[in-house]
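User: Please check token order:
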Amino acid sequence: MPDVLTAADSEMAQRRVAGALHSRGLRAGDRLVLCVPGSATYVSVVLGAARIGVVPVPLDPRLTEHERTALIRDVQPTLVVDDQAGLESLLSGAPMELDRWPRCRPMHFTSGTTGRPKGVWSGLLTSEHAAALVDEERDLWGFHAGDVHLVVSPTYHSAPLRFAMGTLLAGGAIVVLPRFDAADLVDAVATLRPTSMFCVPAHLQRLFAWLDEHEPVFDTSSFRLVAHAGAPCPEPVRRRAHATFGTAVVWEFYGSTEGQFTACPATDWIAHPGTVGRARPGRVVTADQDGQLWCAVPEWARFTYWNAPDKTRAVWRTTPDGPAFTVGDLGRVQDGYVHLDSRREDLIITGGVNVYPAEVEAALEVADGVVELTVFGRDDPEWGQRVCVAYVGEVTEDALRALATERLAPPKRPKTYERRASLPRTATGKVRRTEL
């Protein structure tokens, strides 16, 4: 059954969460690791923490012990919540006064070409910047007290959490599905009449496949906003989304864990096919001479990588429009519209989850009998891409699969294993992933 949470009930829960955290000694700037499945309670815990300046650190509960231990060691949290009982216990604190708006952004982790996940750290916000951050999201997406937001993605991911938080802060309600299921989504739309939803293209593909098979009545007239992002959307899926929900309703956006670049209503995409939209208000997106995209952002949207000053310096530069960051994607800007030509060279996007080959390679290359291996992505009709590995050596596929299960969360585990006599390389010795 969907979990329904109103803004009023969440506000009371947030006050109790703040009291529970304060009684356990957490103060502004401390980190709270959350390694549990997403839920409506999860969103209240994040908001209750953030509104007293305690920084939530959402981790995927599917992480292996190997992955989780390394991240927690890096974060040095004051409190780790790793089961549902621990999450629910935070609702039992004495109610405490809260700041009006969150005093920080949750610190999500993103991987990189080095294979070591990086925490996106924004520190504590001034009252002025906290209000500006909320206002920016509200002005763009139109969050209001009459909203009922349908959450179909795990709330430990940045985009679904951001939409859920924005709805509750505006006085609206959220409806959280325990997991994505097309039949449950259709039922929730019929019975609860949501007004907004965020999803990834894989969700739309699965929804449309289910609709084709079952042919139910699917009345989408309650929606004012359906936003999709997280992976390139195949044109037939995008056009069907326009037809199913309406071109006045469907938006997409381009961004990353680090920050948001663009927003694009369906009408703009129809007028400028292939675009991911214009720069969000208050931002300027440019492409350098190499085609790498940079985004200048207001002060409240800036970040560093936690405990990684060198990596931070590598992605920021000074521009005439102010400090700008890049995530390495390639594209162009034409008449103000951004076109994404290539995601980061090594990035694999599977079901809306970013997977970096270097992280998977680091987990598998320690297997006995591995001479060399490389990880790459291939197109997949359901998930967009699937993770694959090519390897050289006497190691068995079963041994690699067992190590992947031990050391990698499910989205990162290769689905295809190929033993080869050698790996294709360039003249300078680099593996040619694109050939694989």
